Recover the amino acids of this structure.
């Protein structure tokens, strides 16, 4: 199952959820691929990947390995640093388009990684506001489908608790179009504090219905994950993510 984590705004907790969920699924004896498409590469950084990401490695023709496998109890998470080199990604992509041989080499590298293991879960941590028709999303997904043609694809939308952000995230979910196909797995409202949780849960029920999502989830503010700066291995798994993992395992 491929799970794409999406939001209309940065800083709402996509990477935090992506890391927590990857680790929780791996703990349940599965092999997980975490595609870090964050432009800053937070998950990759925590995983100790300090070199350039896949796209930059290919453009610069570097012989680096922009991924790392980390054992989590009886499973594993392989973190792929896809971008992570900041704003140069635009120039890198342009260059890949101009020089087809470079592009081909990149996709060969990516296909190699996808074939190295039979992943049960692929979690994609995105930048804010990506659209399926964006070049790099489309190319990556086409290559992916070439290797995993039957893997179901689900979306997880994340928002913080502000009304304006929740509204914008719902609009984004409708805009990027998979709502019609019924492929919204979850709508997550993050960093909810106790005083507003009743109101937020009520709103969440309405959103889950409107988006035909399989589940809604609120995640409280957690001191333990806030601005976490340790290593991937010790990243705290949010307890609420356990519920999501159970639901996901049931859907397999
Ligand atoms: N539930 C939470 N409780 C406390 N802090 C959180 C929570 N979720 C995310 N954060 C913090 O918010 C900031 C942004 O989170 P991040 O996952 O990087 O967001 P995004 O990937 O959407 O940009 C980080 O400092 C992170 O530690
Ligand atoms: Mg992020």
């Amino acid at each position: 199952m491929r799970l794409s984590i999406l939001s209309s705004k940065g800083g709402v907790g996509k990477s935090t959820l992506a890391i927590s969920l990857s680790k929780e699924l791996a703990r349940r004896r599965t092999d997980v691929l975490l595609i870090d498409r964050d432009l800053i590469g937070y998950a990759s950084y925590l995983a100790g990947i300090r070199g350039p990401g896949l796209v930059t490695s290919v453009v610069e023709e570097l012989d680096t390995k922009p991924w790392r496998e980390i054992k989590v109890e009886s499973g594993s998470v392989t973190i792929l640093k896809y971008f992570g080199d900041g704003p140069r990604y635009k120039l890198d992509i342009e260059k890949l388009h101009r020089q087809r041989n470079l592009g081909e080499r990149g996709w060969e590298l990516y296909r190699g990684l996808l074939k190295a293991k039979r992943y049960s879960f692929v979690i994609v941590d995105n930048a804010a506001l990506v659209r399926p028709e964006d070049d790099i999303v489309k190319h990556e997904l086409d290559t992916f489908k070439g290797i995993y043609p039957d893997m179901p694809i689900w979306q997880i939308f994340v928002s913080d608790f502000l009304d304006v952000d929740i509204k914008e995230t719902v609009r984004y979910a409708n805009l990027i179009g998979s709502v019609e196909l019924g492929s919204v797995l979850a709508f997550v409202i993050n960093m909810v504090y106790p005083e507003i949780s009743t109101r937020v849960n009520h709103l969440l029920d309405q959103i889950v219905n409107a988006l035909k999502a399989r589940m809604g989830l609120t995640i409280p503010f957690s001191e333990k994950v806030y601005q976490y700066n340790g290593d991937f291995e010790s990243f705290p798994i949010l307890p609420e993510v356990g519920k999501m993992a159970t639901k996901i395992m049931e859907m397999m």
About this structure: The chain has one domain: 2-251. Residues 51 and 66 are 7 Å apart (CA to CA).
